[in-house]
Amino acid sequence: MDAAMAQTLFLASCLFCLLILFIRKAMHQRDKLPPGPTPLPLIGNLLLIHTNGTGKGLMKMSEKYGPVFRLYIGPEMAVVLSGYEVVKEALIDQAEVFNGRGEMETFNQVLQGFGITFSNGVTWRQTRQFSIMTLRDFGVGKRGIEERIQEEAQFLVEAFRKTKELPFDPTFFFSQAASNVICSIVFGNRFDYDDKEFHHLLQMINETFCLISSIWGQLFDIFSSIMKKLPGPHNGIRSCLQVLEEYIVKKVKQNQETLDPSSPQDFIDSFLIKMEQEKQNSSSHFHMKNLIATVLTLFFAGTETVSTTLRYGFLILLKYPEFEERLHEEIDHVIGQQRRPCLEDRNKMPYTNAMIHEIQRFSDLLPLSLPHQVTEDTHLRGYMIPKGTRIIPLLHSVLRDPTQFSDPDSVNPGHFLDEKGNFKKSDAFMPFSAGKRTCPGEGLARMELFLFFVSILQNFSLKSYTPPKDIDLSPAMSSFGNLPHFYELTLVPR
User: Fold this and answer.
1) Out of 101, 412, 481, 492, which could bridge 213 as a Cys pair, Cβ 3.0 to 4.6 Å?
2) Beta carbons of 381 and 86 less than 8 angstroms apart
3) Interacting residues of 471 by C-beta distance below 8 A, sequence separation 6+
4) What is the domain extent for residue 102?
5) Is 439 among the annotated ligand-binding positions?
6) Which CATH number do you get for residue 95?
7) Number of C-alpha atoms within 13 angstroms, CB side, residue 366?
8) pLDDT tens across 96-111, in order?
């Protein structure tokens, strides 16, 4: 054998050994990954995922693969966390590692990674800290915002009186009331219920939420580069969000013209003042794009979450009139018919508090939560999760965890009451998510839900022309969000 051939054989042997080592290493790393179904090229495990009832389907899948399993959503690997214990371990016990935000191109095609919800890193931390402090400055968590909600509740009650006991769709009544609370903070004013521009904005929010929750929205998030080039309803998401964006740009310009740095009138003013303070800082995260994205997400979330929960809640009360009767009894006993409800009443009304919690638990507004992302290589339950992996904390599995709630698929306010009838907290109550990415508006939303529910039930009894047994509480749409079936409500003055 000549020298050249010997050298060739030596190199080939080295390459073969390196290839074996590479394959063994790859297999070893794969063995460390969470278990999961075998993916198909390009589409991954999409054929196994229910397009409606996604949360329920993934929870069922966890029975086979365990509480931590991998799933290929198209070509991208995600890790699903199912059940209260493992979601707590990730989002709370390892909060710093699991606090990244996974991408949702449906939103980011307009937000571009800015704002309080879909940003990451320093941008997210600074925006979140500023937003929480500014919301507090404008009364969130204080008496000031309570009075605004009480006032809005009275506007809502008066609007309901005008329905004159005729059946009506409550969707936009609830949207207007919930939206006016956040509008008074971010824009410095509320809107009349007959304001056409306001109604159009709310329609855009409602349509966006419905489209993102549809199969078209899901496909857009998974195959965004392809779907952007195709016609279809998914293109309406961008159009709707741009209408909201254009309105916010208009409001920002108005604020710039009237801005008094010594006396900010709303959230936009405060952000503009912060931008001016940091204008010499070239790396500042307080700039116009971030302002518009932050206001858009506050406006959107502050409107849709509370209004959809109210809509689901009153459907539940139509289904179970015995719950409504108990609520009326407690409201009459604690508050009566004349005095307007206040937050201090909540501690004296355990059944009402429990019922509202149960409505939030059962309605399960965001069953998959918003996607998270691990910020570094990490381990969970003995599995390795690579940096940048999308995490799906299955809130549906937490709110329906049979180890935390007896008979979790049934509506039962007793889930939040002890044997003496006192209100009982549950660590598994996570409709606002958990950890560092908990919804910053949680406190505001809980205030609104209590004051709106109680104000309406103080003044009205509910009536439906559909027999309770025929009322369907299953979601009309269930993927990104859970949306109730359409129904009409009739309110009878008490």
Assistant:
1) 481
2) yes
3) 315, 318, 319, 464, 487
4) 20-493
5) yes
6) 1.10.630.10
7) 19
8) 999 999 999 999 999 9
